[in-house]
């Protein structure tokens, strides 16, 4: 039904069970999973189905109207967020790949969500810095190049309303964050980001073992 689990601590059987007993991917999302899989190993960048369902529920639960996403890939996370917004809600998506975003745009249309989503192709940090400094963002999701996580975090936090939520993906990095022998750039970048958020008194935060690890920071 769904793609292989990104939750490295779960067996495929347990993962399939929890997806089926939550809100599983509908036909459109399943089609997107299958199309993304054709891209090869890079398809692992797609968020897990249970994470998508959680993000939709979270957006609805906080009454989000304005959202930002950094790192859209083929669109699964954007669709999940946009489905949680009201009809007049807006999601700004930041990405740099014309190839992957072309898939995303097509599925935004198929999902009937194109009117809610603006996709900007440019370095994410440039898009964020060009935004007004008003604190009117309700929900944000970071799932892009790991060394730039702190930059995205700071720019979004400036624009997040008090009580707004910032989500960061891949914070467990397949468990490598606690592997002393893992000293590659990506792992070190995730560790630095995790330490930054853990020390940040501007937010309340929790790290959840959803998929490859999801941090939720609530602006105080």
Structure overview:
The structure is a single chain. By secondary structure, the chain is of the alpha/beta class. The chain has a single domain (12-219), classed as 3-Layer(aba) Sandwich (Rossmann fold). 39% of the residues lie in helices and 20% in strands. It has 8 helices and 7 strands, in the order αααβαβαβαβαβαββ. It has helices at 12-20, 27-37, 49-61, 76-83, 98-110, 124-129, 149-159, 185-199; strands at residues 66-70, 90-95, 117-121, 137-142, 160-169, 203-208, 214-219. A 7-stranded mixed β-sheet has the order 3-2-1-4-5-7-6, with helices on both faces. Strand 4 (137-142), helix 7 (149-159) and strand 5 (160-169) form a beta-alpha-beta unit. Helix 3 runs parallel beside helix 4. The protein is globular and about 40 Å long.
Short description:
By secondary structure, the chain is an alpha/beta fold.
Quick tags:
8 helices, 220 residues, 7 strands, 39% helix, globular, alpha/beta, Rossmann fold, 20% strand
What is the second-level CATH architecture?
3-Layer(aba) Sandwich
Query: How many structural domains can be distinguished in the coordinates?
Result: 1
Helix content: 25-40%
**The CATH C-level class name:** Alpha Beta
The SSE string, one letter per element, is HHHEHEHEHEHEHEE
Distance between the termini: 39 Å
The overall average pLDDT, rounded, is 96
**How are the strands of the largest sheet arranged?**
3-2-1-4-5-7-6
Q: Please name the fourth-level CATH homologous superfamily.
A: Vaccinia Virus protein VP39
- The CATH topology annotation reads as Rossmann fold
Query: Sheet with the most strands?
Result: 7 strands, mixed
How does the overall form come out from the CA principal axes? globular
* Rg estimate, integer Å: 16 Å
Count of individual helical segments: 8
- Low-confidence stretches are none
Strand content: 15-25%
**Helices and strands: which structural class?**
alpha/beta
How many β-strands, per DSSP?
A: 7
